[in-house]
Amino acid sequence: MNVNVATERKSLKVLIVEDTKTITNLLQVYLMGWGLEFVDAPNGAVGLNKAREFKPDLIISDVQMPEMDGFALCAAVRADSNLHDTPFMLLTSLKDDASRKKGQLVGASAFLNKPVSVDDLRSKVRDMLKLPATK
User: Is the omega angle on the peptide bond into residue 87 within 30 degrees of 0, that is, cis?
Assistant: First the structure.
């Protein structure tokens, strides 16, 4: 007897930590087409709690936010044994080399400047999550 078992692909979760709701919504629109599940947080402190609760496959975070900035969030994620391998992308309007170096020091997987290039964002996310190209 031949049994055909359908395998369901787990939906990949992306945590977007951004204090501007419009940017959160834009990022979600930019990343449509892969069936990603989105969770969002308005600052790093809330983002860290949500990361611990939802265990995302990718974290995309603004740098400049109230309560806990993106650098501190990235460092906290890297220090957490359950999250330390999670790909982490920092987005910022800061364009200085010191900020980029700080992002590397805290363990960011990628660092993109705002305004974000949709192609660059999609390319980085595709690489980090090992997603297929979309039409």
Answer: no
